[in-house]
Amino acid sequence: MSAAYRPLNQQAAETLLARKWPAPLQAVIDQQISEPRAEAACRATMPRLTAIEDDVSQKVRDQYEQNPYPRWISLGRIHKYDSLDALIQRDFPHAPLRPQGKSGAFDLLVAGCGTGRQPIGLAKQFERARVVAVDLSSASLGYAKSRSELLGVTNIEYGQADILKLGSIGRTFDVIHSDGVLHHLGDPWRGWRVLLSMLRPNGFMHISLYSEIARRDVVAARAFIAERGYGTTAADIRACRQELMGLEQGSSPGRVAGFHDFYATSECRDLLFHVLEHRMTLPAIKTFLDQNGLRFLGFDLPLRIRQQYAARFPGDKAMIDLDQWDAFEHDNPYTFISMYQFWLQKTA
Prior knowledge:
By secondary structure, the chain is of the alpha/beta class. The protein has helices at 13-18, 23-44, 55-66, 84-91, 117-125, 138-151, 188-197, 216-228, 234-245, 265-272, 282-291, 303-312, 322-331; strands at 107-111, 130-135, 156-160, 173-179, 199-209, 294-299, 340-346.
């Protein structure tokens, strides 16, 4: 009963660890005592690759030190590939891809790895890749590294770092992932340029950014939260959720109750109470790509949406015309509710 009020690792942990338990209870002991200890040990020895001096970066780091996000258990099904060329050719068969021709071992950076689900999934997907995974939060990194050890993944190098200073580590990569990260920087475009400076010619980049259009309800909810004066404590988040769910049906702030992340405290904090978020538009993204020598390869989207786009714009067989996607999004404002998620290639 006491576990309903205080975590088990704050109670008689040694006594609980010393006993033998039936398998279902042992799983609870592992999750509540053994795994947090492993996380703490990994966190204590985590290399610090750069200083974290930017004011916004420090605030974002502090948020995720308190609320590592997301806490996850399993990876799901992993599709294995020998090269990035094979993956992109499968998903974007008509994209203007210039093959890298690199099979097996290549260098991959995950900039903003959070609690590790993405880099671990990539390390399993490309078993000979050399993966570097960095994040602002040592708590998130501790969780990530402990999960790597639990799953027997050995081809990931973790480190604490700020993207804004990451160029100082003096390394370059064939592939860079930065998903759901850049829009939380004080200057997302500056952070993106830092990552580009680390990407080799013909290298691939996977980016995920918030959409200004798709997050209109989140914007309304954040304004509602500011007006009501809610803080970021668990009690405030719970009270705010209750009030949002009680709003008139169909109201813009109340529609955030339809988000999956709305119903867990850490995830809701990330969704609605984040220290800072920027939202992008497709014209602004297109301008950045044109100015920085990047070739757009395609969006990660459900088949249903891709079919709708193809029916409206049959001339864009590769589905890479960002002007047409902008028109499509204005007519279908929730198209990118899960962020703009897309692949790019750096021109030689």
